[in-house]
Design goal:
single chain; 351 residues; alpha/beta; Rossmann fold; 2 domains; five-stranded parallel sheet; 15 helices; 10 strands; globular
């Protein structure tokens, strides 16, 4: 068994540990933010952590109404521009806490007087030392190069950050997230069987929207780095604005289709893909089985999700787990080692 598969299966325990350990930290952060509510939130991240930041952008804007921007670190590190972040909350997300460029953004913002938050899996990292407040992902050492348990841990930390900013995310609902992750793992055999169909896949598109848009990026990243599949990622709207021209008969298209505001546009896209005779594969849950019926292929998560507004607010963590399993099993089908992708290392330092 690959380390990637082992670490995917460790996620319910890692999420529960993170919740128990970081709830008090989030409460203290909430007190600090009540005294100094930011006019803007700026997120700095790279790689998988950048996908977590994309989720943060949607969750924080939807739940708090505060504008959120994703930092372009090269504006600081390569162009040397001075961006005034003095009234912003600046959040750096990094699995290792050693990403040179994201730490530089945080350091520059802190020097200007901005409140800073670090989200990392490494308590002794440079990021943990640099940030004013730290939300630790308690995932334990991640040995596979492909991030899995640290990604879902970062998503959970973002929920805690949203709670600290006053979002109406009930504690009881947040406490159920490890249970939802455990339920998603029950699809293990179904995912393994599904992956065999795509053994010779070389190209694909991955589609998500809203709160699962980041998951489209993350699933595509896992397919690229562990299976060497050229996986393009889009929102349903962006795919229709031109790139759908590359979709032809039997072309694989993977879609996250939760219930709620994004369901209608995604169901419309499934119909369009069927007209093109593409190979549509959906991840959804029992509240939106129509998506599975329209696509004819996919996975329906056996979940009883907490009531939320919007209805898809608690779907991202359980939805990404079968996608992670899919990538791990597809890599095995292709005879590849997902723990050591070519040309990659666990910690990447860029400017």
């Amino acid at each position: 068994m690959s380390k990637m598969l082992e670490e995917i299966r460790q996620q319910p325990a890692a999420l529960e540990k993170t919740l128990k350990s970081e709830w008090k930290t989030a409460a203290k952060l909430r007190q600090a933010l009540e005294k100094k509510r930011p006019r803007l939130i700026v997120l700095a991240a790279r790689g998988t952590s950048d996908n977590a930041a994309q989720f943060a952008r949607y969750l924080l804007e939807i739940e708090t109404g505060i504008p959120v921007s994703l930092a372009a670190p090269s504006i600081n590190t390569l162009y040397g521009a001075q961006v005034n972040l003095s009234d912003a909350l600046v959040v750096a997300i990094s699995q290792s806490g050693e990403s040179t460029d994201t730490n530089f953004v945080l350091e520059r913002a802190k020097a200007q007087g901005a409140m800073t938050v670090g989200i990392t899996n490494e308590p002794a990292s440079s990021l943990a030392r640099l940030a004013d407040h730290v939300l630790l992902v308690r995932a334990g050492k991640e040995k596979s190069v492909a991030a899995t348990k640290t990604y879902t841990g970062q998503l959970l930390a973002v929920y805690l950050l949203a709670h600290a900013l006053g979002a109406a995310l009930p504690e009881k609902s947040l406490q159920r997230i490890p249970e939802l992750a455990h339920a998603a793992l029950r699809l293990d055999r179904d995912v393994q069987a599904a992956a065999t169909r795509y053994r010779f896949m070389e190209h694909a598109v991955v589609v998500g929207r809203g709160l699962n848009y980041s998951n489209a990026f993350e699933w595509a990243l896992k397919l690229m780095e562990t299976c060497y599949v050229v996986a393009e990622r889009f929102s349903s709207a962006d795919l229709l604005h031109g790139p759908i021209a590359m979709v032809e008969s039997a072309f694989p298209a993977f879609l996250f289709v939760p219930p709620g505001p994004v369901s209608g546009p995604l169901l419309g896209l499934i119909d369009r893909l069927q007209e093109l005779r593409a190979d549509a594969f959906v991840i959804t849950d029992s509240r939106n089985e129509l998506a599975f019926k329209r696509a004819g292929r996919g996975l329906v998560l056996p979940l009883r999700l907490p009531a939320g507004d919007p209805p898809d607010v608690f779907t991202p963590i359980p939805y990404i787990i079968p996608a992670q399993l899919f990538a791990a099993y597809l890599a095995a089908e292709k005879g590849l080692n997902p723990d050591q992708p070519r040309a990659l290392s666990k910690v990447t330092r860029t400017l």
